[in-house]
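Sample A.
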Amino acid sequence: MFVKVAIDLALDRLFTYSVPVELTEKLLVGQLLRVPFSGRIARGFAMAVETEPPSFKTKPVLSIEDESPFFSPALLKLVKWIAGYYAAPIETTLRAALPAAVLKPSAKPKELLFVEPGDPAAGAKFSARQQELLNDIRRVGGGWMQQLVREFRTTPSTLKALAGKGALVIAPRVSRRDPLAGRRVMPTQPLPLGDEQAAALATIMDMCHAPAPRRPVLLHGVTGSGKTEVYLQAIAQVLDEGRDAIVLVPEISLTPQTVRRFAGRFGDKVAVLHSALSDGERYDEWHRIRTGEARVVVGPRSAVFAPVRRLGLIVVDEEHDPSYKQDESPRYHARDVAAVRASLEDAVAVLGSATPSLETWLNAQSGKFALAALPSRVAGRSLPAVHLVNMEQQAERTGRAPIFSDFLLDAIHLRLERGEQTILFLNRRGFSRVLECGDCGWVAECPDCSVPYTYHQADNCLRCHVCGGWIHVPPQCPNCHSKEFSYTGIGTQRAEAALKRCFQHARVLRMDADSTSRKYAHDDILSAFRAGKADVLLGTQMIAKGLDFPNVTLVGVLNADTSLHRPDPRASERTYQLLAQVSGRAGRAEKPGEVYIQTFDPEVPAIAAAASDKGFDGFARQELLDRREAYLPPYCRMAELLFRAKDIARAQSWAELYAKSLGSWAAKFNAAHGGAELFRVSEAAEAPLAKAEGWFRFQVVVRAPASKDIVSAVKWLQAQRPAPKDLRVSFDVDAQDLC
């Protein structure tokens, strides 16, 4: 018997080992093994078992690390698909699919002392303090020794003395690291469904019971239409049938709210997986899923690999969100991986959104995906009234563009008087985007990145939002020595300061990457706002989706143009999605909502569509026509080759070489397909972010009918022209961001 092993190195190949007789009956695909490799002992995963001996001499497997496989056969198939589709090393893909903490010895749970009430020996005598302590411990039913010592202000020696008299039982017990410990979760019951929700649920369950292969379901529901309740009731039915579920959310900031809702319905069956957990919490949650103790998994994109035993349903909430795309190898898209995993395990993928990606929308329109529609809000509530505010006109009156228009200020004032809440969206953190010399025009730029520093007033420094570097604000201009600096551009810190000047008694919370750096910060901010401890929540895109606050009746978008002018073919789509999603935070309960979108160009189609009554259908119809004419996704597949080098000429020359070679491949491909220009290669050009972390960046963009066509061409070229060590080449299949 022989086994093919993926060693924990990025070699992108499998190695064959013989299996000793004593391990033959124990060895399973997906197990972690110890094997000899290049003069040392290495770890690797069993990928396949074979009976035919290879034509070369093999070394034996040394041991099996854990008899329970870390990967099921279906998960291994998924990993292999990802490695092939996204052209990533198999070892890198395995590593992405398994939390690093799971393999860390230090993350394994430790035994702690647990104290329980006992049966005192006959005639045992206790002091008044001891009797009081015993009464307290009986009242709470016992607990961990450290916890009881703190809570009842005693000592371990006192507890042990009581145990010596039989009044307590102290024994070691494994302690679970619970991410929800200390977080209040209120049990909930299923809500009555409206007709549209009931029909959507029926569509999902019909697909769950349909013969394999089962199509993914797009749950297209306007904001506030009750998609989450449909998810909950679909999962409840799947659990009743003995199968498990995974729920993906795009942002860690949404995880606490989502986990609370799912834990309220399914209790201890819910596990959470995300990068903000400690190693111990991740280890325990992963093993709870692996053993079947937890049957509903909630988390961002990496939770798509959760080792559930019998997968029945994968929900991808806000499926359009770009956060589902991994930005390092393997550059997988969790939405697409979810659909493939569901297919491999005879499960159903449910993709939910008010503003679906155009790829998903086209699949639903063509019948490749089933469509379940929720065109109305729950209980007949109306969508918010949306107003576009032309900031050019505001600037003409005052001589400069204000942060808040008069219309928005009046609307905020009205909400403060009524005791209602407001959400303000600005997708740029920091105080000011640029520090500029007022005399000579010098701009403070990061020396390692081709972007200006952003001024952060909170710590009075200049920060680079690409590499994270920072410097103190210079006392004078290094170019002309002037001290006349101007701070241009608006970030969330500046907007917060201006808001507090306008409304001195308003309680304001800011939510961005700076204010949420500590653990549980997302949850704490959102919980405080939900509890009515603030009047205004100001934040970046982490507040733009998935949040449900009944008392929010006003949403203000401070600069709708921020994402519109990015040099990316999806800029219009992303702008519309952001505006529609953040607008949907208003008026989700009985009180009607209102939205003010501040823009310098209200006639841009994406912005105008966000304020029109045509909805997503109207926007998607025109955008798809434009995409078809320009031969852009979803009418083709698009990939990016990014070349990075410390020397600009090095990056440019290799990008040009690859562009030329791929152009020759494209000519042959197109000739073989009747001369139609199906395979297209851009010229080598500086990336929009021309320099990052000291590396110069050039890109080549490739479009073709199928991803496999692009992968074949690039793999051929990489074999013919392997990149030198001083050049980094990344290959992003189905690229979502060309910036």
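Sample B.
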Amino acid sequence: MENEIEKFDIAVIGGGHAGCEAALAAARLNKTCVMFTINLDAVGNMPCNPSIGGTAKGHLVREIDALGGEMGKAADAAMIQRRMLNMGKGPAVHSLRAQEDRARYRIDMKRRLEQQQNLMLRQAEVIDIEKKDGFFYLTIHTNVVYRAASVIIATGTYLEGRVIVGETSYPSGPDGMFPSRRLSGALRKMGISLMRFKTGTPARIHRRGIDVSVMEEQKGDEDITAFSFETEKPKDNAVSCFLTYTNKKTHDIIRANLDRSPLFSGMIDGVGPRYCPSIEDKVVRFADKERHQLFIEPMGIDTEEMYVQGMSSSLPEDVQKEMLHSVKGLENAQIMRCAYAIEYDCADPTQLKASLEFKGIPNLYGAGQFNGTSGYEEAAAQGLMAGINAARALDKKAPVILGRDEAYIGVLIDDLVTKGTREPYRMMTSRAEYRLLLRQDNADARLTRKGYEIGLISRERYEAFLQKEQDIENEIRRISQITLPPSAAINAWLESCGESTISTGVKMTELLRRPAISYDMLAPFDSKRPVLPKAVTREAEVRVQYEGYINRQKAAVERFRKNEELSLGEDFDYDAVYGLRIEAREKLMKFRPENIGQASRISGVSPADIGVLLIYLEARRREKGR
């Protein structure tokens, strides 16, 4: 290789949210790392909505932070508005969402990467990759070759990217960046099967053309929570968002122009996200709905661009303008960037192990939208795990694989590698069987110890975490020992809360379990209450209030684990298992699940097939024990 100039332990292809986390994790685990990006100004870019978090996604960000990742810290630094979603429901689905200053987030993330030891950033398009003598050789567009022991592919929506607006289409990455034109062919040569997916984004409009006085103002929460457990003082809210709606006229405009929509004309080949459809798709699929929500969101502090959340489209620009002007408050809207759809190549994730390493191609990993997902948070979570596992593999250490009962990250990756996806995968709370155990408030309790053992959490942070856990347990123990006697004052207060009065002494924890009562409300009857951080008292409150439900879920996890962790291995001989249905045998041989749990989640493998496998494994265990 005459053009070889640099040798690295790990090469990351892509500088989006997956690539950033992968590169940082690998470098922090003492691996020399190079991260390639087509444009250095697009590192950590948000080509779609200018926000981090949201339902289930906020859980992912807090898990990333608890493991030692960077997204939560960067999001806190660039936050301009913050809201906790689903507060009218139980704590399992409370999800933090923050509006971000898009430019500041990108600049801040790039700075974090630039300052990281062991990590080099390189603006270049990787056009070829081949494996030889145990190493990967990556050729960039200037015909220079780099060598790496391990590679993480995190190409986002750049692979053979094609932007579509009405009857117009052209090769492009997101936000007008160059696409990656040659890497797809190289990956196919390596035996990687690629799919064609589509995503889209709404128009950006100028603030001066918006009449917010006729819209509903959406302010941020006064009680501000941070994404990162290390952020001591979150920033104050600096902006408001605004809510408006489409109407009959909007829908009539869309219906009248469906023949010009590339989504319905057949011009778009890629499969789009079902849970984040374009406005034309929503109007067709939900024909009975009279209106759809549109959120008008600032793109940052130093820009007049506003994002029209809920109006993703690939209709021609003249139609986009007409439908925007039909919306209340947007009659004079001025388009700064038109909405567009983008098609791109991505990998079938069933080719990956739970470590995100490709089966049959040691030390090659996939992460982010390249694995068929949608969303910054899903991408960052995979990038972190790919970076960790790539580094550990070079150190001859076992991969870190999170269970479905341990983290939303575990649910995300398990879904991808066992079930695959036929559309851009989006994380939702409903995908997690044990979501009461996987709350965003206890992400540190679930994962900080693991992050410390991996090597991404400092000793100082780990000791602070241990102290917090001790404070929570001490407070739960303290209030569980307090008995409140009946009195006129307490009964008058209970009646004012809509709760029944007491005639005998009641444990404070019993009162706390009543639906209308919170920890803070009990303060007047708790004279010896210590001064504790809000994070401690909030967690103590949840653990007391939901103790019964939490214990039931923990018991269900233990029952499930007995079979979940039974190993199958890559070389398991399914032909030797008598009684397996033909379809199940074919699926199992194709996907090669690592354990019974993964096998049970493969489409086409029935509970009866799992029963046959369990009987076979037990018989084999007894034979070995003789």
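B remarks: The radius of gyration is 26 Å. The longest helix spans residues 459-480.
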